[in-house]
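Justification of computing resources. Each target in the renewal requires a structure prediction run like the one illustrated here; the chain below, 269 residues long, is used simply to show the kind of job we budget for.
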Amino acid sequence: MSVLVEAQRQQQLLAAILRHDAAPALREQGARAERGLAAYRANAGALAERALAAAAPTVAAMLGEESFARLARELWAAHPPRCGDVAEWGAELPAWLAAQADLAEWPWLADAARLDLALHAAERAADATLEVESLSLLAEADPASVTLNLMPGLAVLASTWPIASIHAAHHDAGPDPFAPVRVALAAGQGEAVCVARAGWRAVVHRLLDHDAAFMRALQGGDSLAGALHEAGEGFDFGAWLPRAIAQSWLKAVLPLADTDGSNPERCQP
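Resulting structure tokens:
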């Protein structure tokens, strides 16, 4: 069998699994073929549930086991994995949740999923440490000629919903962990966060809006001067820098000529 024919057969098999019908290219038809496809579907569905629960535990807790299992299987069918590492699957979850009419009464679900996925990605990011000697550039160089390189896997999210409080309520113990969520929702309070590694674990850090604007500008490739401008007058760089060093947000100060703004993904379509 040629490589092309085998590839076509595998594509048709995958289509049969996802469409729940039999494919003409299968060597067997009838009841035996259907039993084989059913086994494939069951295994794929269970794998989808496990993979998505690992990547989005807060969403899983909010939806409950049965609803989350159904969602995972539907997401897998609509957006099957594009590479062999199933831990990379699930990026479409936030948009998928936002499009579900039956979940409209929980409009914060999509942003909660983004936070979950950011935590999952951060824990899989490459290890890195602060390049301490590069800090001297802050005293020597023109802010327009340098930028701050943040740690691999670091993510900055800003939401109109209290995503940090929602996440904490589902993962922290206490007599009434949801009390801050109720207060924030009643006040229409959104939250900005930074997700970064603390050792091997990813941690949620709450940010002021000015801090979030500054860090997102850096991630977008701005110079230090440009990021300070984006952050606005309320931003305190003198307070941000020690925090960034202590909480492992900052990797290095770099001349702009040494950066290319690229952020390659581990798994390509």
